[in-house]
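During the second year of the project, the team shifted from modelling isolated chains to modelling whole assemblies. The rationale, set out in the original proposal, was that interfaces cannot be judged from single-chain predictions alone. As a representative example for this report, we include one of the complexes processed in the last quarter. Its constituent sequences, exactly as entered into the pipeline, are reproduced here:
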Amino acid sequence: MEFLKANIENGICTLAISAPKSLNALNSTILKELDDFIDHIDSNVKVLIITGDGEKSFVAGADISEMQNLNAEEGENFGRLGAKVFRKIEVLDIPVIAAVNGFALGGGCELAMACDIRICSDNAKFGQPEVGLGIIPGFSGTYRLAKLIGMGYAKEMIYTGKVIRADEALRIGLVNAVYPQAELMDAAKALAAKICAMAPIAVRYAKLCINAEYDLEADEAIAYENKVFGMCFDTKDQKEGMTAFLTKAKPSFKNE
Ligand code: CO8
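Output from the structure prediction step:
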């Protein structure tokens, strides 16, 4: 992998996007590497953390130099590639944490939004500046931003291209927490470790439900949860978790 740095420790995979010359902007090679990485992620990994290499930028958007001379068909294809990879991240069967360590602009903000949970450093900046470049968010930002923060503020951000700071991102619910830059990765790993201590199949089922139910009508969503709730009782870890509680022991989950 030319542009990705991965490290696995205690079931937590930390993946850093690394294109220092362009503040980790996403070109099609990086998107393909990301696609391939997600397809072949080690089965022992319980949580994936995505961050940007260096201290300045998470991802400063899609690569503008690659997009500059695209025609409509090529633009659509480039957008489709990014959207496909980000959707894979969104529905990946393990939780994904975005540790946003600086600029998360355009495709960078869209990548963070495809992750399950976003935390950031105090120097992070978020925005969808695309209309200032003559395009719109093309990696599903028009869809996810409104869902995450509400339509009114999403429209303001997208129509004006305004860039917001970490404290504002926290206020509007775009991120869950803000940390000093030096503490961000430890905080991301501590959050991941808390998830790792839970029953993995239950975590997976919870993600499946939350994602699937989001676009369903209430009755359908409730029925969906009911079905998956029942499936939990087919797992050994459900017996382990409840027995451990009742015997005041620490559960030892086996992912079974
Ligand atoms: N693409 C390509 N190169 C970039 C990008 C980018 N998105 N961002 C930064 N760079 C490059 C700069 O060109 C510069 O290169 P060089 O050193 O060769 O001049 C280098 O990174 C460092 O950048 P700056 O000198 O500009 O650093 P500053 O600290 O002054 O500024 C900023 C940092 C504010 C992040 C600034 O670089 C910037 O505004 N970058 C562009 C941000 C942006 O507009 N992002 C959105 C891009 S569009 C997008 O993401 C659309 C997604 C959907 C695509 C759909 C496909 C059709």
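The pocket of octanoyl-coenzyme A is lined by residues 22-23, 25, 60-65, 67, 75, 78-79, 82, 103, 105-107, 129-130, 133, 137-139 (CB under 6 Å). The beta strands are 4-9, 12-17, 47-52, 57-59, 96-100, 103-105, 117-121, 125-127, 163-165, 177-179.
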